[in-house]
């Protein structure tokens, strides 16, 4: 079931208000490891250490500074920064609506379910409208002293709120400096055919976290004192540009 | 201070792995579909915008770093002295080495094997976890460009699983503005059910909905993330600039700062060598 | 004043004050000095070639005042090769390059007893050819302690697959050079590396080694001066004379030899005089040659 409600707010736009409660929509499951000291198996702690002397520094000897340049810091008292803390507000203000498909997944950060608040007036109408028009509301709100940008959308039976990354937090593809390489139409055609042959409907329930299971098996094996075979991972030979076309053709033959 | 998110793809623990994870990327390996194999590196696609605060030692203003410390000795433990343990009882652990971890799914820790392609439109955005870019390694440039282009034309994304460190990820590989983006996905079982909080199926007031739609239409525009800035961060930066004009900065002692893993790995290697030297003398 | 016009390798050069005794208590004249440099030239020239020279001139001998000269004297012969090195303030300075025997002789004639050169060559002043561990004994420590430290450094480096080469400073200390000879090398890297090594050694041998420059820290210890790994710093060139009471030479020592000498505990054996330097180079060749040619890469950087 969904996590406990972590916050309450009001969706607000054009004279319209809907009260909602935020619930986390995702919970990651993983086997937890502790980090231990190899020689005596003592559990390690993460601590702040002095970069210069490499020794742990107690909290009372820690202070915060703004890094102006390497080695130069501006000391700031937390009280001085109070004034920039956003005001506590319960309003999720929608500024505009965009076609849902226009939001590139690279901008999506965390996702929350929105449960209708009390009173639940307007929730269903909003949900219906968003679904019919396939749009998302771009909104801003303040939660626990932080400002968020988000997208409000309808999915299945419930409204969802996604936090979005700011434009300056996304690394541009341009900065990757990828090479422009001309491709032959034949290669593109066979490549496209291959992909279409390998296309299946998206069925996420097909995919289990097998690794978790195997990891648990490994742990159980070790607990029983069994020897673990170390298999070296195989590295595939890269497909060179001169072999690309024939590899595509061979692949297509295999799947067709 | 715990990371806000549960760990992103974690850095490997032992320095011996260093030549396997590329100096600049998070991971390096191969991405494959059918018989085609492309050598690639995984790099960041997002960088959280933050005001560059650092924790400093109040005594001499040397910057502080987060490191693993042995509470018994109160000293930093270098990466090659750290081992993972799974707790099976109070102070009882099963130890797992990097090699054993990689041996769990050896294929998947070096290869992202695309097993099928899906229509991007079919993917509910709730599955998206964290984005990365893949960049081609030497020799893979042409095959890389081909994959980008055919996925763009067909509007499909590749589904694959791959392992890094302790975790196995389900990922979608898609074409994004001329590059390959790799987005980790949540597993079905990690998506929480909305059953208990889903609203009742009430009758919707058609008039209200139609009024709403008109308002929404009037407020519809193209998605342009540049329009929005992190207000708090901007206000903070402005204020700090003002403070900086009136106040002199403090200086850290004149030393080379240990950045990231580099020098700590070096020192670990030197200490290891030192241990052997002392043993033989 | 004895003046002689010599023809050295086809160039005319006026040699002056040849009979002047520049090492009064030992008895070593300018002529002797020039003779030493002439005979050692096949071995020293490759280590001087293409490097910005800092002259250390003792016009009146080792007991009198000396002065450093970085700028190549304007009255130099036309055939002395030079380079223009950028300075901190943006200006460029002309420096002498000892690329041949004539220039070596001319420099010797200026009573530049000591020849100091940077770790980088003049055509690429930000690219060090080697990492240097400058071992300097503090008060009450001596060259034998340096030898002990040098041997530990050798072992430590071999554990990270690096080979170093030792030489005497010609005074109280020792130098260990780790050749890199790669264009990617930077002083930032070599400084970081040498500092890391120095600190690891200080941690493990706190009574023998210090990485800190403050005088108080150096008593009875060997100071590893890692800050020498800098574009602005110079080291005494191997085979150069030193302006000490006697004409000792900065001379390379094989590791085996260092082990034997350190074991025997006689510090005198670690000081090499001009005559011994000549005898040994003429018999064994350039023991420091590997520092010029061996290519190595610093790990973990």
Tell me the CATH architecture of the domain at 17-45 and 56-191 in chain B: Beta Barrel
Quickly give the structural class of chain B: alpha+beta
Helix content of chain B: 10-25%
CATH topology heading of the domain at 7-28 and 85-169 in chain A: Ku70, Chain: A, Domain 2
Mean pLDDT of chain B: 81
Counting H and I runs of at least 4 residues, what is the number of helices of chain A? 4
Beginning-to-end CA distance, first to last residue of chain B: 43 Å
Q: Kindly provide the name of the CATH class of the domain at 17-45 and 56-191 in chain B.
A: Mainly Beta
What pattern of helices and strands is seen along the backbone of chain A?
EEEEEEEEHEEEHHH
CATH topology of the domain at 17-45 and 56-191 in chain B: Ku70, Chain: A, Domain 2
Spatial arrangement of strands, main beta sheet of chain A: 1-2-8-11-10-9-7
Instruction: Determine the strand fraction of chain A and express it as a percent band.
Output: 25-35%
Largest sheet features of chain A: 7 strands, mixed, barrel
DSSP helical segment count of chain B: 5
Helices, strands, pairings?
The complex is a heterotrimer of chains A (256), B (281) and C (301).
Chain A: E1 7-13, E2 16-24, E3 34-37, E4 45-50, E5 62-69, E6 72-75, E7 91-99, E8 108-116, H1 123-133, E9 135-143, E10 146-155, E11 158-164, H2 185-197, H3 210-223, H4 244-255
Parallel strand pairs in A: 1-7
Antiparallel strand pairs in A: 1-2, 2-8, 5-6, 7-9, 8-11, 9-10, 10-11
Chain B: E1 27-33, E2 36-44, E3 53-57, E4 64-70, E5 75-76, E6 82-89, E7 92-96, H1 98-104, E8 111-119, E9 128-136, H2 141-154, E10 156-164, E11 167-176, E12 179-185, H3 206-218, H4 231-246, E13 250-251, H5 262-280
Parallel strand pairs in B: 1-8
Antiparallel strand pairs in B: 1-2, 2-9, 4-5, 6-7, 8-10, 9-12, 10-11, 11-12
Chain C: E1 3-8, E2 11-16, H1 30-48, E3 54-57, E4 67-69, E5 82-86, E6 92-96, H2 101-109, E7 112-118, E8 130-137, H3 143-159, E9 165-168, E10 174-179, H4 187-204, E11 209-210, H5 215-218, E12 222-224, E13 234-236, E14 248-249, E15 252-253, H6 255-264, E16 272-273, H7 274-284, H8 290-293
Parallel strand pairs in C: 11-12
Antiparallel strand pairs in C: 1-2, 3-4, 3-7, 5-6, 7-13, 8-10, 8-12, 9-10, 9-15, 14-16
Helix pairs in contact in C: 1-2, 1-7, 3-6
């Amino acid at each position: 079931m969904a996590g406990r409600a972590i916050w309450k707010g009001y969706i607000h736009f054009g004279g319209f208000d809907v009260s909602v409660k935020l619930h986390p929509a995702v919970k990651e499951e993983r086997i937890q490891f502790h980090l231990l000291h190899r020689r005596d198996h003592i559990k390690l702690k993460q601590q702040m250490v002095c970069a210069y002397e490499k020794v742990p520094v107690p909290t009372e000897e820690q202070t915060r500074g703004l890094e102006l340049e390497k080695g130069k810091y501006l000391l700031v008292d937390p009280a001085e920064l109070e004034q920039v803390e956003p005001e506590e507000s319960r309003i999720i203000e929608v500024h505009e609506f965009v076609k849902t498909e226009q939001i590139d997944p690279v901008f999506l950060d965390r996702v929350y379910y929105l449960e209708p608040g009390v009173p639940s007036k307007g929730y269903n109408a909003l949900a219906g409208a968003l679904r019919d028009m396939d749009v998302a509301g771009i909104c801003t709100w303040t939660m626990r002293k932080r400002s968020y940008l988000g997208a409000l959308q309808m999915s299945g039976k419930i409204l969802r709120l996604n936090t979005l990354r700011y434009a300056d937090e996304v690394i541009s593809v341009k900065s990757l400096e990828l090479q422009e390489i001309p491709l032959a139409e034949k290669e593109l055609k066979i490549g496209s055919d291959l992909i279409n042959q390998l296309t299946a409907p998206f069925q996420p329930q097909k995919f289990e976290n097998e690794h978790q299971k195997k990891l648990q098996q490994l742990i159980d094996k070790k607990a029983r004192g069994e020897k673990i075979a170390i298999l070296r991972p195989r590295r595939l030979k890269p497909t060179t540009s001169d072999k690309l076309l024939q590899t595509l053709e061979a692949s297509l033959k295999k799947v067709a | 201070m715990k990371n806000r998110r549960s760990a992103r793809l974690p850095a490997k623990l032992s320095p011996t792995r260093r030549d396997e994870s590329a100096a600049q990327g998070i991971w390096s390996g191969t991405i494959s579909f059918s018989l085609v194999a492309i050598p690639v590196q995984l790099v960041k696609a997002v960088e959280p915008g933050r005001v560059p605060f650092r924790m400093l030692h109040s005594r001499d203003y040397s910057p502080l770093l987060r490191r693993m410390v042995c509470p018994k000795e109160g000293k930093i433990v270098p990466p090659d002295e750290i081992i993972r343990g799974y707790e099976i009882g109070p102070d009882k652990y099963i130890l797992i080495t990097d090699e054993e971890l990689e041996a769990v799914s050896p294929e998947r820790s070096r290869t992202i094997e695309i097993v099928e392609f899906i229509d991007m439109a079919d993917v509910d955005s709730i599955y998206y976890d964290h984005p990365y870019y893949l960049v081609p390694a030497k020799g893979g440039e042409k095959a890389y460009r081909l994959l980008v282009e055919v996925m763009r034309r067909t509007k499909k994304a590749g589904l694959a699983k791959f392992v890094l460190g302790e975790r196995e990820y389900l990922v979608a590989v898609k074409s994004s503005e001329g590059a390959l983006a790799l987005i980790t996905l949540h597993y079905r079982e990690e998506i929480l059910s909305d059953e208990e909080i889903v609203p009742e199926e009430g009758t919707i007031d058609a008039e209200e909905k139609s009024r709403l739609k008109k308002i929404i239409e009037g407020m519809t525009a193209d998605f342009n993330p540049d329009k929005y800035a992190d207000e708090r961060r901007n206000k903070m930066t402005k204020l700090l600039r003002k403070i900086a004009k009136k106040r002199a900065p403090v200086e850290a002692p004149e030393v080379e700062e240990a950045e990231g893993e580099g020098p700590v790995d070096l020192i670990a290697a030197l200490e290891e060598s030192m241990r052997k030297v002392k043993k033989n003398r | 004043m004895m003046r002689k016009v010599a023809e050295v390798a086809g160039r005319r050069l006026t040699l002056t004050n040849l009979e002047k005794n520049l090492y009064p208590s030992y008895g070593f004249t300018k002529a002797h000095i020039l003779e030493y440099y002439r005979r050692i030239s096949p071995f020293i020239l490759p280590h001087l070639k293409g490097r910005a020279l800092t002259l250390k001139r003792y016009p009146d001998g080792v007991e009198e005042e000396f002065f450093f000269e970085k700028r190549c004297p304007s009255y130099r012969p036309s055939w002395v090769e030079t380079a223009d090195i950028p300075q901190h303030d943006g200006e460029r300075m002309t420096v002498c390059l000892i690329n041949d025997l004539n220039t070596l002789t001319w420099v010797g004639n200026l009573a530049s007893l000591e020849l100091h050169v940077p770790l980088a060559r003049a055509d690429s002043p930000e690219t060090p050819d080697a990492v240097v561990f400058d071992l300097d004994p503090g008060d009450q420590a001596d060259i034998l302690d340096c030898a002990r430290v040098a041997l530990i450094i050798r072992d430590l480096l071999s554990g990270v697959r690096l080979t170093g080469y030792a030489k005497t400073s010609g005074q109280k200390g020792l130098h260990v050079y780790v050749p890199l000879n790669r264009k990617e090398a930077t002083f930032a890297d070599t400084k970081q590396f040498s500092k890391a090594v120095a600190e690891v050694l200080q941690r493990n041998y706190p009574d023998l080694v210090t990485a800190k420059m403050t005088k108080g820290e150096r008593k009875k210890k060997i100071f590893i001066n890692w800050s020498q790994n800098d574009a602005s710093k110079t080291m005494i060139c191997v085979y150069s004379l030193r302006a000490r009471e006697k004409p000792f030479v900065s001379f390379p020592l094989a590791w085996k030899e260092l082990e034997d000498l350190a074991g025997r505990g006689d510090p005198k054996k670690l000081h090499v005089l001009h005559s011994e330097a000549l005898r040994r180079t003429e018999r064994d060749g350039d023991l420091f040659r590997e520092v010029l040619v061996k290519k190595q890469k610093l790990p973990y950087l």
